[in-house]
Design goal:
- It holds the Pfam family ABC_tran.
- One of its GO terms (molecular function) is ATP hydrolysis activity.
- This protein has eight helices and nine strands.
- The protein is α/β, with parallel strands linked by helices.
- The strands form two sheets. A six-stranded mixed β-sheet has the order 5-6-7-3-8-9, with helices on both faces. Strands 2-1-4 form a three-stranded antiparallel β-sheet, covered by helices on one side.
- Helix 5 links the parallel strand 6 and strand 7.
- It is globular.
- It binds adenosine-5'-triphosphate (ATP).
- The site of adenosine-5'-triphosphate has 10 residues, from helix 1.
Length: 251
Protein backbone atom coordinates (compact mmCIF):
# COMPACT_ATOMS: atom_id res chain seq x y z
CA UNK A 1 0.00 0.00 0.00
CA UNK A 2 1.04 3.59 -0.40
CA UNK A 3 2.50 5.22 2.65
CA UNK A 4 1.38 8.72 1.92
CA UNK A 5 3.01 11.89 3.19
CA UNK A 6 0.05 13.99 2.14
CA UNK A 7 -1.30 16.40 4.70
CA UNK A 8 -4.93 16.80 5.62
CA UNK A 9 -5.57 20.55 5.84
CA UNK A 10 -8.62 21.94 7.60
CA UNK A 11 -9.02 25.67 7.22
CA UNK A 12 -11.51 27.52 9.44
CA UNK A 13 -13.99 24.67 9.26
CA UNK A 14 -17.38 25.35 10.83
CA UNK A 15 -20.46 23.17 10.92
CA UNK A 16 -23.98 24.10 11.94
CA UNK A 17 -27.20 22.18 12.38
CA UNK A 18 -30.31 24.33 12.07
CA UNK A 19 -28.21 27.45 12.72
CA UNK A 20 -26.78 25.93 15.90
CA UNK A 21 -22.97 26.02 15.69
CA UNK A 22 -21.60 22.53 16.37
CA UNK A 23 -17.99 23.18 15.28
CA UNK A 24 -16.44 26.59 14.83
CA UNK A 25 -13.27 27.71 13.07
CA UNK A 26 -11.41 24.43 13.28
CA UNK A 27 -8.03 24.76 11.58
CA UNK A 28 -5.72 21.75 11.65
CA UNK A 29 -2.84 20.28 9.72
CA UNK A 30 -2.77 16.50 10.02
CA UNK A 31 0.44 14.83 8.88
CA UNK A 32 0.18 11.84 6.57
CA UNK A 33 2.08 9.40 8.74
CA UNK A 34 0.78 10.10 12.20
CA UNK A 35 -1.91 8.90 14.56
CA UNK A 36 -4.21 11.54 16.06
CA UNK A 37 -6.65 11.13 18.95
CA UNK A 38 -9.72 13.37 19.22
CA UNK A 39 -10.75 13.85 22.81
CA UNK A 40 -13.16 16.17 24.61
CA UNK A 41 -16.41 16.30 26.55
CA UNK A 42 -19.47 14.47 25.32
CA UNK A 43 -21.17 16.59 22.65
CA UNK A 44 -18.00 18.57 21.83
CA UNK A 45 -18.28 17.53 18.18
CA UNK A 46 -15.74 14.70 17.90
CA UNK A 47 -17.96 12.43 15.79
CA UNK A 48 -19.03 15.39 13.67
CA UNK A 49 -15.39 16.27 12.97
CA UNK A 50 -14.66 12.64 12.03
CA UNK A 51 -17.64 12.65 9.65
CA UNK A 52 -16.37 15.86 8.04
CA UNK A 53 -12.96 14.20 7.52
CA UNK A 54 -14.74 11.20 6.01
CA UNK A 55 -16.68 13.41 3.60
CA UNK A 56 -19.98 12.22 5.10
CA UNK A 57 -20.82 15.78 6.11
CA UNK A 58 -20.04 19.04 4.34
CA UNK A 59 -18.77 22.04 6.30
CA UNK A 60 -21.01 25.09 6.55
CA UNK A 61 -17.84 27.17 6.17
CA UNK A 62 -14.18 26.52 5.52
CA UNK A 63 -12.36 23.84 3.53
CA UNK A 64 -10.94 20.34 4.01
CA UNK A 65 -8.25 19.02 1.69
CA UNK A 66 -6.18 15.87 1.71
CA UNK A 67 -3.24 16.66 -0.56
CA UNK A 68 -5.05 18.30 -3.46
CA UNK A 69 -8.20 16.24 -3.05
CA UNK A 70 -11.41 16.72 -1.10
CA UNK A 71 -12.52 14.02 1.37
CA UNK A 72 -15.16 12.82 -1.12
CA UNK A 73 -12.47 12.05 -3.68
CA UNK A 74 -10.33 9.78 -1.53
CA UNK A 75 -10.72 6.20 -0.37
CA UNK A 76 -11.27 6.26 3.37
CA UNK A 77 -11.70 3.49 5.90
CA UNK A 78 -14.16 4.42 8.59
CA UNK A 79 -14.83 2.37 11.71
CA UNK A 80 -18.08 3.99 12.91
CA UNK A 81 -19.41 3.93 16.47
CA UNK A 82 -22.20 1.52 15.51
CA UNK A 83 -19.72 -0.78 13.69
CA UNK A 84 -21.29 -0.33 10.24
CA UNK A 85 -21.66 -4.08 9.55
CA UNK A 86 -24.16 -5.15 6.90
CA UNK A 87 -26.66 -7.83 8.02
CA UNK A 88 -26.08 -9.98 4.92
CA UNK A 89 -22.28 -10.13 5.23
CA UNK A 90 -20.43 -12.58 7.45
CA UNK A 91 -17.51 -11.25 9.48
CA UNK A 92 -15.04 -12.60 6.92
CA UNK A 93 -16.99 -11.17 3.97
CA UNK A 94 -17.12 -7.75 5.67
CA UNK A 95 -13.37 -7.68 6.25
CA UNK A 96 -12.55 -8.92 2.74
CA UNK A 97 -14.89 -6.29 1.28
CA UNK A 98 -13.04 -3.66 3.31
CA UNK A 99 -9.73 -4.86 1.92
CA UNK A 100 -11.02 -4.97 -1.64
CA UNK A 101 -12.55 -1.48 -1.69
CA UNK A 102 -9.12 0.13 -1.56
CA UNK A 103 -7.54 -2.00 -4.29
CA UNK A 104 -7.54 -2.07 -8.05
CA UNK A 105 -7.29 -5.84 -8.23
CA UNK A 106 -9.56 -8.43 -6.62
CA UNK A 107 -8.87 -10.47 -3.52
CA UNK A 108 -5.87 -12.78 -3.89
CA UNK A 109 -4.93 -15.89 -1.87
CA UNK A 110 -2.36 -13.67 -0.10
CA UNK A 111 -5.19 -11.36 0.99
CA UNK A 112 -7.19 -14.34 2.22
CA UNK A 113 -4.21 -15.54 4.28
CA UNK A 114 -3.59 -12.02 5.64
CA UNK A 115 -7.21 -11.68 6.74
CA UNK A 116 -7.20 -15.15 8.33
CA UNK A 117 -4.13 -14.12 10.33
CA UNK A 118 -5.85 -10.94 11.51
CA UNK A 119 -8.89 -12.98 12.59
CA UNK A 120 -6.58 -15.28 14.51
CA UNK A 121 -4.85 -12.38 16.28
CA UNK A 122 -8.21 -10.73 17.07
CA UNK A 123 -9.54 -14.07 18.37
CA UNK A 124 -12.32 -14.01 15.80
CA UNK A 125 -11.58 -17.22 13.89
CA UNK A 126 -14.45 -19.11 15.53
CA UNK A 127 -16.98 -16.48 14.41
CA UNK A 128 -15.51 -15.63 11.00
CA UNK A 129 -18.50 -17.11 9.15
CA UNK A 130 -21.17 -15.68 11.40
CA UNK A 131 -23.50 -12.77 10.58
CA UNK A 132 -23.71 -9.59 12.71
CA UNK A 133 -26.92 -10.72 14.48
CA UNK A 134 -25.01 -13.79 15.71
CA UNK A 135 -22.19 -11.71 17.24
CA UNK A 136 -21.83 -9.98 20.61
CA UNK A 137 -21.21 -6.23 20.76
CA UNK A 138 -17.51 -6.78 21.48
CA UNK A 139 -17.19 -9.26 18.60
CA UNK A 140 -18.88 -6.81 16.21
CA UNK A 141 -16.50 -4.10 17.32
CA UNK A 142 -13.50 -6.37 16.74
CA UNK A 143 -14.78 -7.22 13.25
CA UNK A 144 -15.18 -3.50 12.52
CA UNK A 145 -11.61 -2.78 13.73
CA UNK A 146 -10.27 -5.74 11.73
CA UNK A 147 -11.97 -4.40 8.60
CA UNK A 148 -10.34 -1.01 9.18
CA UNK A 149 -6.91 -2.59 9.70
CA UNK A 150 -7.28 -4.85 6.65
CA UNK A 151 -8.19 -1.99 4.35
CA UNK A 152 -5.39 -0.28 2.50
CA UNK A 153 -6.78 3.22 2.30
CA UNK A 154 -4.61 6.29 2.82
CA UNK A 155 -6.76 7.42 5.70
CA UNK A 156 -8.14 5.44 8.62
CA UNK A 157 -10.85 7.00 10.79
CA UNK A 158 -12.19 5.25 13.90
CA UNK A 159 -14.94 6.39 16.27
CA UNK A 160 -14.35 5.03 19.78
CA UNK A 161 -13.00 1.81 18.27
CA UNK A 162 -12.13 -0.01 21.50
CA UNK A 163 -14.99 1.18 23.72
CA UNK A 164 -17.06 -2.05 23.79
CA UNK A 165 -14.15 -4.36 24.60
CA UNK A 166 -13.27 -5.81 27.98
CA UNK A 167 -9.91 -4.69 29.40
CA UNK A 168 -7.91 -7.71 28.24
CA UNK A 169 -9.34 -7.78 24.72
CA UNK A 170 -8.95 -4.01 24.45
CA UNK A 171 -5.24 -4.20 25.24
CA UNK A 172 -4.76 -6.96 22.65
CA UNK A 173 -6.70 -4.99 20.02
CA UNK A 174 -4.77 -1.78 20.77
CA UNK A 175 -1.43 -3.57 20.36
CA UNK A 176 -2.63 -5.20 17.15
CA UNK A 177 -3.71 -1.81 15.84
CA UNK A 178 -0.22 -0.40 16.53
CA UNK A 179 1.50 -3.43 14.99
CA UNK A 180 -0.61 -3.09 11.81
CA UNK A 181 -0.03 0.63 11.72
CA UNK A 182 3.75 0.18 11.89
CA UNK A 183 3.64 -2.27 8.98
CA UNK A 184 2.02 0.42 6.82
CA UNK A 185 1.87 3.86 8.46
CA UNK A 186 -1.02 6.04 7.32
CA UNK A 187 -2.89 9.03 8.62
CA UNK A 188 -5.16 7.73 11.36
CA UNK A 189 -7.64 9.73 13.42
CA UNK A 190 -9.62 8.13 16.21
CA UNK A 191 -12.13 9.40 18.75
CA UNK A 192 -11.80 8.32 22.35
CA UNK A 193 -12.95 9.21 25.85
CA UNK A 194 -10.01 7.38 27.36
CA UNK A 195 -7.06 9.68 28.12
CA UNK A 196 -4.56 6.85 28.57
CA UNK A 197 -5.62 5.31 25.27
CA UNK A 198 -5.18 8.68 23.55
CA UNK A 199 -1.65 9.12 24.94
CA UNK A 200 -0.56 5.54 24.32
CA UNK A 201 -1.87 5.18 20.77
CA UNK A 202 -1.70 8.66 19.28
CA UNK A 203 1.28 10.82 18.40
CA UNK A 204 -0.83 13.94 18.85
CA UNK A 205 -3.89 14.42 21.04
CA UNK A 206 -6.39 17.02 19.81
CA UNK A 207 -8.47 18.37 22.69
CA UNK A 208 -11.85 19.79 21.67
CA UNK A 209 -13.81 22.18 23.85
CA UNK A 210 -17.61 22.38 23.68
CA UNK A 211 -20.34 24.83 22.69
CA UNK A 212 -19.35 25.32 19.99
CA UNK A 213 -16.71 22.68 19.36
CA UNK A 214 -13.26 24.19 18.87
CA UNK A 215 -9.71 23.00 19.11
CA UNK A 216 -8.60 23.89 22.62
CA UNK A 217 -5.12 22.43 22.46
CA UNK A 218 -2.98 19.88 20.68
CA UNK A 219 -0.75 17.85 22.95
CA UNK A 220 2.16 15.80 21.69
CA UNK A 221 2.21 12.41 23.38
CA UNK A 222 5.46 11.61 25.20
CA UNK A 223 5.10 8.07 23.78
CA UNK A 224 6.27 8.56 20.20
CA UNK A 225 7.89 5.21 19.51
CA UNK A 226 4.79 3.16 20.20
CA UNK A 227 6.00 -0.37 19.85
CA UNK A 228 5.17 -2.39 22.96
CA UNK A 229 2.40 -0.95 25.11
CA UNK A 230 2.63 -3.37 28.03
CA UNK A 231 5.50 -1.57 29.81
CA UNK A 232 4.26 1.93 29.08
CA UNK A 233 0.85 1.14 30.59
CA UNK A 234 2.49 0.83 34.01
CA UNK A 235 4.81 3.81 33.67
CA UNK A 236 4.98 6.83 35.95
CA UNK A 237 5.19 8.98 32.81
CA UNK A 238 1.75 7.75 31.67
CA UNK A 239 0.30 8.38 35.12
CA UNK A 240 1.66 11.93 35.21
CA UNK A 241 0.72 12.87 31.64
CA UNK A 242 -2.78 11.45 32.09
CA UNK A 243 -3.27 13.69 35.13
CA UNK A 244 -2.10 16.77 33.24
CA UNK A 245 -4.29 16.03 30.22
CA UNK A 246 -7.32 15.38 32.42
CA UNK A 247 -6.89 18.84 33.98
CA UNK A 248 -6.61 20.31 30.50
CA UNK A 249 -9.84 18.65 29.34
CA UNK A 250 -11.80 19.46 32.47
CA UNK A 251 -10.34 22.93 33.06
N1 LIG B 1 -28.72 15.39 13.83
C1 LIG B 1 -28.48 16.27 14.80
N2 LIG B 1 -29.38 17.24 15.10
C2 LIG B 1 -29.14 18.16 16.06
N3 LIG B 1 -28.01 18.19 16.80
C3 LIG B 1 -27.10 17.26 16.54
C4 LIG B 1 -27.27 16.24 15.54
N4 LIG B 1 -26.15 15.46 15.52
C5 LIG B 1 -25.33 15.96 16.46
N5 LIG B 1 -25.90 17.02 17.08
C6 LIG B 1 -25.30 17.82 18.15
O1 LIG B 1 -23.99 18.13 17.75
C7 LIG B 1 -23.12 18.18 18.89
C8 LIG B 1 -21.89 17.33 18.59
O2 LIG B 1 -22.26 15.95 18.47
P1 LIG B 1 -21.14 14.83 18.27
O3 LIG B 1 -21.85 13.51 18.20
O4 LIG B 1 -20.25 15.22 17.15
O5 LIG B 1 -20.35 14.97 19.65
P2 LIG B 1 -19.27 13.99 20.31
O6 LIG B 1 -18.21 14.88 20.85
O7 LIG B 1 -18.89 12.94 19.35
O8 LIG B 1 -20.13 13.35 21.49
P3 LIG B 1 -19.99 11.93 22.24
O9 LIG B 1 -18.67 11.97 22.94
O10 LIG B 1 -21.14 11.96 23.22
O11 LIG B 1 -20.11 10.84 21.21
C9 LIG B 1 -23.95 17.68 20.07
O12 LIG B 1 -24.33 18.80 20.84
C10 LIG B 1 -25.14 17.03 19.44
O13 LIG B 1 -26.26 17.17 20.26
Amino acid sequence: MSTSNKQFQLRTVSFQIEKKPILQDVSLTLEGQKIYALIGASGAGKTTLLQLLAGLKQPTNGTLQFGNQTPKEIVISLVPQEYGLLPWQTARQAVLAGRKISRQQGITPTDQAFVSQLFEKMQLTAVADKYPNQLSGGQKQRVAITRGLASQSELLLMDEPFSALDAFTRETAQQLFLDSWHEAPRLTVFVTHDIEEALLLAHEVIVLESNPGRVKQIITSPFQEKQQLADERQSELLFQTTRLLRKEIEG
